Amino acid sequence: MRTFPTDFTWGAATSAYQIEGGSTADGKGPSIWDAFTTIPGKIHNAHSGRSACDHFHRYREDIALMRTMGLKAYRFSISWPRLLPRGRRAVNRAGIAFYDRLIDALLAEEITPWATLYHWDLPLALQMAQDGWLNPEMPTYFAEYADLCFSHFGDRVKHWITINEAWVVAILGHGHGIFAPGRTSHDEPYRVGHHLLLAHGAAAQLYRSKYQPRQRGVIGMANNCDWREPASEEGPDRAAAERALAFFLGWFGDPLYHGRYPEVMRSRLGDRLPRFTAAQAAQIKGSTDFFGLNHYTTMLAAHCDNPSSEGNYLTNIGIAEDQDLELHLDPEWPVTAIGWGIVPWGCHKLLHWIDARYDHPEIVLTENGCAVDDDLVAGRVDDQRRIDYFNGYVAACHQALADGIALKGYFAWSLLDNFEWALGYSMRFGIHYVDYATQERTPKASAKWYAAVIRQNGLP
Ligand code: PNW
Q1: Domain containing 301: what range?
Q2: Ligand 1 interacting residues, C-beta cut-off 6 A
Q3: Does the active-site annotation cover 109?
């Protein structure tokens, strides 16, 4: 039996646009994803989150699924345009009431709510009239919205995540244009990333000064990173792998923990990388109470003198031209339905990389999971491949704990099959199967496996 610490947090995660549906219900305003999903060709089969898993109406049923599993914590996101339909000022009381009901129902089942403030569903008005995350005023608007959330929910929500995956918002939303708002540029991602960091910093400072002394919660950011393994033992490939990690996680982790961007980004990007004023750097440095990490996969990294970031965005390469980098899979690795390698040792190495670079922070794995081509057969989903994936990654977490890394929690992505962004409903990440025609939920074998892990607080 590989046992976890008694206070270890076992959770599952979702996000508002991916599960709620109710996209115009009770006064909700449109988000950039409501708009983006209407553009022909952007989303697999023209799917959208209009109804999604109808969690907006079925949250009680979904909390019952969590209770059945013995889940300790549930990570969800708050829809900014559900609270502020035009992004600022006029508050939609019915939106507040929805999250009040959700939070109260979770607490009634002794499930700890972990709330993410921004999981990509920016109010459309802020995009159309203000250029969204390109606007240097966005950190101010975000802090206003955060203030609203802390003031209404902070008496009950003690775990806050400001921004989910700044890298994805910057690179996939403003670099490759495959996610909302669909912009393509080699320069905008760095400005967007800068504003996201400033937005996090403004919200975190507000929380710490105005709310934390009374509410006594914690605040962090959830950044995503895959592991980059050198494609060979040669110096250039080792340097390429390290550079890839700096451009992926160091981009956000270094400002949060060191108060500056990685040196390799500053030297390679020059004036394309914005600068922090001394006051801004001081506000961001040390602004998180834990290191939130979303981790899914690993790629081999090789030096390449003329790379291209065109093509398969699923490799998470970023702006390859800035990194002299090429990525590929080891053909030996098994892959998930999305084509991501299943490489648990990459997770273990990344946890060590974070532990060393940021001086032993408390880490929470805020997302980990995989897509499987699940079949519902006679009321059952036998997703052994997902169990194998989780088993490998949870074992890697246990190994990291045994090495002395301060890992505090693990959140499976996802509680439910849901709207997988550009891939629509074609990819299933859930531990519960969702029949989108009937909205019926079925616990997969992986939900039962995970329930046993939680019950035993470890791996058999
Ligand atoms: C994360 N990529 O996003 C998100 O936080 C979730 O909303 C999402 O459902 C989950 O991972 C599974 O994909 C990503 O294509 C989505 O590079 C796509 C990419 C990376 C992260």
Answers
A1: 2-459
A2: 15, 18, 164-165, 168, 224, 294, 313-314, 316, 367, 413, 420-421, 429
A3: no
